[in-house]
Amino acid sequence: MKKCEYGVSANTRRLLIKYLLMTKMAIVLVLFFSSQSFAHSYGQGISLKLDKVQLKKVLKSIEDQGNFRFVYRDKLLKGSQPVSIDVNNASLTEVLDKIFEHTSLSYRRLSNQLVVIVGDKTTENQLAAAAIPVTGKIANEKGEPLAGVSVVEKGTNNGVTTKADGSFSIDVSSANAMLVFSYVGYKNLEVPANQPGKLQGLVLQQDATNLNEVVMIGYGTAKKSDLTGSVSIVKGDKLNDKPTPNITQALEGKVPGVDVSVNNNAPGAGAKVRVRGLGSINANIDPLYVVDGVIGVDGNTINPGDIASLEVLKDASSTAIFGARGSNGVILITTKRGRAGATRISYDGNVNEAQLYRHLPNLDANEFVQIYNLSFANGQKFSANAANPNGTVQAPPKALNHINYPKLFDANDKPLYNTNWEKETYKPAFSHNHQLSFQGGSEKTLFSVSLGYLDQNGIMVNSAFKRYSARFTMDNDINKWLKIGGAISVIKSQQKLVSDNNGGLNVPRMVTEEASILPIKYPDGTWAGNYDIAGLEGGPNPIQIAQNRYTLNNIFQTLGNTYLLFHITKDLEFKSDFGYNLNWQKNNFFSANDLPHLSQDQGGVANIRTNTSNFWQSENYLTYNKEFKKGNKLTALLGASWQRTVTETDFVEAQNFIDNFFQFNNLGAGSLRSSSTSGGNTRTLNSFYGRIFYSLQNKYLFTATGRYDGSSVFGANHKYGVFPSLGVAWRVTEEDFMKNRPSFLNDLKIRASYGGVGNQEIGVGRSQRQIAAGTTVIGNNNTSVLYHDYMGNADLKWETSYQADGGIELGLFHNRVTLNVDYYNRTTKDLLLQTPIPYSAGLNQNNVYINIGSVRNTGLELNLTTTNIQTKDLTWTTTFLFASNKNKILKLNNGNADIFPGPNFLGETNILRVGEAIGSFYGRYRVGTWSDKEATEAATHNLKPGDRKYLYNADGSEKYGIIGRSNPKWTGTFNSSLNFKNWDFSFDIRFVQGVNTAATFKHSSEDRQTIANSLKTVLNAWTPTNQNTMISQVRNYAYAQDSKFDTWWVEDGSFIRGQNFILGYTLPSKLLDRAHISRLRFYLSVQNLFISTKYTGYDPEVDTYNTGYGSNANFSQNLDFFSYPRPRVWNAGVNLNF
Amino acid sequence: MKQYKYFIIWCAVVLLAATSCKKFLDEKLTTVITPSSSLSSLKVAQALTTSAYSNLSAAMLGGQPSSYGGNTYDLMEFLTGKATSDLGQTNYTVYQSLAYNNTSFYFDTWWQFLYKGIGYCNQAIQTLPGITAAGLTDSIKTNMLAEVRTLRALYYFHLVRMYGAVPKVTTVPTDIGSLKIPRTPAKAIYDSIIIPDLLMAEKSTLPWRDASGRVSMGVVESILADVYLTYAGAAINGGNTAYAESAKRSLAVINSNQYSLFPNYTDMNDPANKNKGEFIFQVQYSVTANVNNPLTPLTIPNYSGISAYSDEYGSVIPTKEFVASFTAGDKRAQERQFFFTSYPGAKPPNSTVTFKGPYLYKWFYPAVATTPKSDLNYTLYRYADVLLMYAEAQNRTGTADAQAYAGVNAIRARAQLTPVAGLSQTAFEQEVWSQRYFELCFENKMWFDMVRTRKVRNDITKNWDDFVGHKNVFGATYAEKNLLFPVPKKETDVNPNLLPNNTGF
Fold first, then answer.
1. B66 to chain A: which residues are within 8 Å by CB?
2. From B97, which residue of chain A is nearest by alpha-carbon distance?
3. How many Cβ atoms are within 10 Å of A31's Cβ, its own excluded?
4. What pTM did the predictor assign?
5. Closest C-alpha to A941, from B476, B84, B88
6. What Å distances lie between residue A800 and A295, A760, A806, A1115, CA to CA?
7. Residue from A504, A411, A410, A498 nearest A461 by CA
8. What H or E segment, with its residue span, contains residue A455?
């Protein structure tokens, strides 16, 4: 038998590989798998030849064949007639139908393996009288009743399963009987049957390290112990332990190797998620989000409250099933679904208040006047040159006094106002979040409904985010061989964004740069602003901007799927899943006609941008599952998929409005129709994929995965690519020679995997030569033009990450200590590099996508969880997560010339150079200021004492070099959870080390004066008596020294953050039972309780270039040009289950 | 076994649905045209022709990315040593002090947009002959090609004057592997592209003037006059033949009787005069089309509050020494002619803002108090320039003739200066140079004159210094290396065949 099956599977494997390479494979597959002969030869057949044997023995014989286990009350079988049977390779149904033919017995399959045998009512009642009845009730640690728990009298086959409310009743054979409770994901529990009181409140302990835990893998599930790849799991409750608007933020600090940067603190803003470093330069490197099988969902739109569990697939063995889209890691999301039994209602809600907790002080009113006047006084020195050696006496355009500014100064020329703009702009903000869900169903139909409402307000005045979400799932067993189901979720959200326009005079910038001598409004009710002071750059005050310039980002999303699942044979399934994601975004922007520098020149600006994206996918796959004797097991998967995304964009803008009344509601009211554009594109994917998992004696595990992917975005010469991977694992502790291992060693698994996974995330049309249409002015009118826009590259293909991963999983002291360590080496080759081409080519786009270059990420990930104390009342566990990543560019374009990818700020900010990391900062070296003694040397550089001093090359030019890194050397999270009786206390402390953050705002708020307010640090500027400083002598703006990205801006961005502290109390179930409440927990939490960092800006984890919704530019990480400060959030919440 | 039946039916449905769209992975672009598309109409031909103009603005008045107030225009003035700035971000000190190198900005912006202009022209020159369409007669097509070739010549003319030897690109590149084109000497670029292109355009039937600002015969001849004058100059040393060829073209413009000097300098600040009168060729801007002249706010004193502009830059300011060096009584140096030192504030009304020195009035738009949108064109060639080109070229072929004197004296007369007569060849030439110096100042002409003639007027001594060795008012001394710009490092990085760079870089 065994031999035969090996033969078949080896043969099948060959066939699979062969068919994988055929484009029309799916047709062949269907015929192949559906053929009767195949099903039979492959069937999990039972062969028996027994003559007049007791029923119990028959069942034992079937159990011996290794595929099934029976649960029944012993007495049920007593007295049944002996049976004879002779079958060969028969199905379980055939066999059981035959042997129960003349009995009152019937059976029910609980799982593929477990079969419960029951009698009819009469028999059961008769039996009940003869046995010792025992009843009880079981729940999990949270008091949620557990249905379907197996309850077995120890040492017998006598067993039942619990009902939906967790209750059970079983008749045991003796007063000394022990009951064994077991349930997937929980530790087994053994209790004596003879203690009726205790049985009513049984609690099964969740087993986080349970090796039988079932985890999602792409297109299927696997037991955790069977995994050969690197997969991290986050449960929904852990994910939602702090109030966050989306899963990207929720993931922060939860998974080693998943670096999450919450760069923007505007309400509803997404975070940047990077799995195992930066694997590409120009292609998108966001991980792939798969929500209940729907591939490529925007991680920021999903309501985290709907999530039951989330898995991060990191290595090639896990991600290769997603082929061309797997190289940046895959995040599989499983939403909450129905469960059999009484409908469970749960409510989770929280209210919170956010507040500013770090400060960036600027000059107060008196200091502003002092620095302003000093700057002009110093102007004479800096205006001196060869033709004008004594300089020119400098006077402000209008001196700051009450004659020029009667509204701002009193008769003694003291400022009338001293406004703290930070305090006026960042106010405590109240938010609340509610989630209501229903989960229920019968044996045949399961359903869930969940409703969510989030109302988040930001500390920046007028910034807000609202989301309404509804989700419905249904799963129905139509009959033995067909199951249907699906999910649909509808999400509507609106973000009110007031912190746009990075680099411009936006709200956060004006908080620092607005002169503190100004009020918000004058007594007559008119706005005050820098524009009231002659010679100032004239930015409106932050409150005026926040009220009169904003974007409403509306998103409406319908996401879901429907599936048909055919149980073709007991072992073979076919699933056909149709998924869709209809996403509609409409961004309404308004900027009033009285905001200088922003929209006054245009007479007001309003625009509307819509973006619709319609996605569908058809996933069709066969799964074959077979367990043999002695822990040999085979799972095979073969599938085909088609996907299509159609996007459309429109943009209309009008300017010059007679009144701000209309905002964006009537673009027709603007006299200038400044822009109307539209665009759209279609992209498609066609894939064939397969996976074979084999477990040899439960000791040696093999997973071979492959995907053959075709994408429309690639060149005509390279539409398809192959992405194979292999994973192997050795469960050392299952070995015979380990039988005598020390008792503290529970589990040891060693894993290794290797494979090549792709990235296709570039824009449409990159492979084709393009002629574009535009306009230019001829004789007062816009006139159409056609020009050569883009070079095209018909050879364009995937970039491929070749990743090797080695891992060790260790369980010690009854798994109270678990350690997971992974080392990876991921080399991305054939980078989809936006390669600069010579300008002399004369194309509009002076770059072309070429598969050239290579980058390597190597890193170590560690997850150490220890249960330090475990007693009846007290449990204390700690988790330490650690991840290090080293990124290195191995090769760029031909000749390996440096590439400056931007974003530029007064010149280059970032560099791509072979041998260095992606995200390296590039700039000058500031070493101090020139002292009076160095006047002669300073003059050779055209500078004077008091000017900033930089390093120079031998030829006299300024030295530029790599002056920092924007990605951390290592990150870690320390988590501690303490449960004492009904109390729970936990905290997360996050470490991000070996990274720089560039305080680029120093350019305008420290390196120059007299056109805006400055940081308080200019009080430490160079003066004849303070020559040992990094800050140049203040002078009026006309003589500002050239200011560019330098080492003084690039600060140490390492930090230790008190991420989240939670204190919870769960009411005792005794109190709750009467109210039919199964669980009620109250908690208080605080996010960002503290931060320890040397960074002088608001927060070292920042990126002000990605203020737009979902923007994730690769190179602007840790560039801070006036950020939306991170708030501390005090939160109170409740979890309630009925 | 009915499950098989349904299962197979379902599979068939799925397969049919998925494979019914033939060529599932073919990419069809809908917002851009791929070269395989067949486009052939009069309008397509017009659009290709017009594309030749679309980089004029980006090259001549191109904003410098990541600089506040930086513009390609700034570079050409800073380098003369006659300009300074209110804005550190223009990096003006680097250029005044001649401390620039191959990574300094502006150089790459100029290079980029001039070549982009050439690329668009090449696409048109390559595609136009193949288009046959109703209404597209041979003579229309010839004139279209004349427009495009004239502009290609203009882009190359700027390139060779700035960088010397440059890559010669005359076709649209299709092969990624063959983009690293080495440099061709400047003379060969003149001989094989600039001059032939213009001579071909000269044979067309383009009208002498074009009210919409397109290339006319006047433009072709003016550029040819400039090209031959420069060819005759120090860079190529084309000799007297080139001077004669130059004089022939400027005379043709004069004799066309299509152009005349504006009576007042401020007529140049009036948008009603766009493409009219003295103006021969301008970069087109239009408030109607919402494409505004960027030079106006750049030349208003920094945050002076005299306009409706939120941003008043003061990017380029004449040095006091330069303004002081005008001949006494020269109208051009008087208030609100070419310069101004005070102006009514835009708020509160009726107050006058006095600047710290003279600022450029030449690019001032008189309506700035009420609108932050300048409707002025930016002039590349005007009649005064042609008159002076004729005077200079003709004088070199013998002695200055009556037309040469008439031209110079017309320009002097407008400046309220007395006429000149009977000058020696050298004295007449220096008089022409002086008039170019004063008349065309801050029109991006002076730098090209400096490298063409290898002479610089010394604002203090009022002598014509040799270029090499001249010391500007900022104390920097011009050297041989300053005659050509460095080829930008960004370009040599991706095309190492351009190395070695120009001497000194």
1. 904-907
2. A942
3. 12
4. 0.83
5. B476
6. 19, 9, 19, 21
7. A498
8. strand A445-457
Q: Could you give the CA distance from residue A940 to residue A944 in angstroms, rounded to a whole number?
A: 9
User: What is the DSSP pairing of strand A854-870 with strand A817-829?
Assistant: antiparallel
Bridge partners (DSSP) of residue A773 are: A786
The Cα–Cα gap between A1085 and A1083 comes to 7
Identify all chain A residues contacting B284, using CB atoms and an 8 Å cutoff. 776-780
- What phi, psi does A265 have (nearest 5°)? -105, 15
Q: Checking DSSP bridges between strand A114-118 and strand A69-71, what pairing results, if any?
A: parallel
Task: Name every residue whose Cβ is closer than 8 Å to that of residue A423 and which is 6 or more positions away in sequence.
Answer: none
DSSP bridge pairs for A134: A170
How many helices (H) and strands (E) chain A has is answered by: 18, 55
Write down how long chain A is: 1138
Separation in Å, CA A197 to CA A126, A175, A191, A202 = 26, 15, 12, 10
Quick one: tokens of B302?
């920094």
**What is the Cα–Cα distance from A128 to A192, expressed in whole angstroms?**
19
Integer Cα distance of B256 and A406 in angstroms: 62
**CB of B346 within 8 A of CB of B307?**
yes
Q: Which of A194, A198, A216, A62 is nearest to A133 (CA)?
A: A194
In this complex, how many residue pairs, one in chain A and one in chain B, have their CB atoms less than 8 Å apart?
Answer: 298
> Beta strand A330-335 with A288-291: parallel, antiparallel or unpaired?
parallel
Give me the half-sphere count of Cα atoms (radius 13 Å) on the Cβ side of residue A856.
11
Round to whole Å and give the CA distance between A779 and A1138: 75
Rounded to whole angstroms, the maximal C-alpha distance in chain B is 116
Complex-level ipTM beyond the 0.90 threshold: yes
| Average pLDDT per consecutive 10 residues, chain A (1138 residues; last block may be shorter) | 37 43 39 36 62 80 75 71 79 79 73 69 56 82 77 78 82 80 76 76 70 80 87 87 86 89 88 89 89 89 89 92 91 88 88 94 96 93 80 85 93 95 96 93 89 95 94 91 93 91 88 96 94 88 95 94 90 92 95 90 94 94 88 91 94 94 93 90 93 91 93 88 93 86 88 93 89 92 93 91 94 89 95 90 92 94 92 90 95 83 84 92 96 93 92 89 94 94 93 96 93 95 95 91 92 95 89 80 94 95 72 78 94 91
Chain A residue numbers touching B314 (CB-CB < 8 A):
1038
The DSSP-derived string for A954-1007 is TTSSBPEEEEEESS-SEEEEEEEEEEETTEEEEEEEEEEES-EEE-TTHHHHTS
Kindly determine whether residue A597 and residue B24, on different chains, have CB atoms separated by under 8 Å: no
d(CA A601, CA A599): 6
A1043, B88: Cβ pair inside 8 Å?
A: yes
User: Quick check: B319 and A842 CB within 8 A?
Assistant: no
| Cα B97 from Cα A953, distance rounded (Å) | 18
Q: Which residues of A are less than 8 Å from B176 in CB distance?
A: 791, 793, 837, 848, 850
- Cβ distance B458 to B464 under 8 Å? yes
Q: How far is CA A845 from CA A291, A635, A849, A863, A892, in A?
A: 36, 49, 11, 46, 19
If you write DSSP's letter for every residue of A189-205 in order, what string do you get? Answer: EEEESS-HHHHTTEEEP
Helix or strand or coil: residue B18?
Answer: helix
Is B141:A808 a contact under the CB 8 Å cutoff?
no
Close Cβ partners of A1074 (under 8 Å, ≥ 6 residues apart): none
Q: Would you list the DSSP string of A401-418?
A: STTT-TTTB-TTS-BS--
Best mutation target, A477, A786, A1045, to test chain B (most B CBs within 10 A): A786
Q: For residue B365, what is the DSSP state?
A: -
B112 phi and psi angles, rounded to 5 deg? -60, -50
